[in-house]
Design brief:
Length: 165
């Protein structure tokens, strides 16, 4: 199964939902598609979908999916990385009315260059190629989740101890 999430941002992400629905119609892979469509207006015809799923369902979909395709919001693709999976990340773009600016595209490009553990796909062709060649693309990618939470916690503890002295 391939799980796709567009997040909870109030602007539609019809471009991604339509692209995935076309790929499902073409049967480009043997996997079925499940899409969380959010505020998108396009209704998929060839995929299982819901505007929103309970969080517990979202995590099960991410865990059970062979591939997870997500929008460029960091919390969404980081959640995939936490599960030791390489996400295909499609940033929302201002020119398509998907967001108020292009911060997702900028962030995804920079994150991809720095950590090399996400697949950035900005066009329908890149999305299709990323799904078709997913196993080959990820075979040499580091499957490492980078979190600064432990370092952040140590620094807070250190600062608290200094304040208590």
């Amino acid at each position: 199964m391939i799980f796709v999430t567009v997040g909870t941002h109030e602007q539609p992400f019809d471009r991604l939902v339509k692209c995935i629905d076309r790929l499902a119609e073409e049967k480009i892979v043997g996997d079925g598609f499940v899409i969380q469509t959010g505020f998108s207006r396009y209704i998929p015809k060839f995929c299982e979908y819901s505007r929103f799923f309970p969080y517990s369902d979202m995590t099960k979909f991410m865990e059970n999916a062979r591939i997870v395709v997500t929008h460029g919001g960091p919390s969404s693709f980081m959640e995939v990385l936490e599960r030791r999976k390489i996400p295909i990340v499609v940033p929302r773009c201002k020119k398509f009315g998907e967001h108020i600016n292009d911060h997702q595209a900028d962030f995804v490009r920079n994150f991809s260059l720095k950590y090399k553990n996400i697949i950035s796909a900005e066009s329908d062709e890149e999305i299709k190629a990323s799904i078709l060649h997913y196993d080959d693309i990820i075979k040499d990618m580091p499957n490492v989740f980078v979190s600064n939470n432990e370092e952040f916690t140590r620094n807070i503890e250190r600062l608290a101890m200094e304040l208590l002295k």
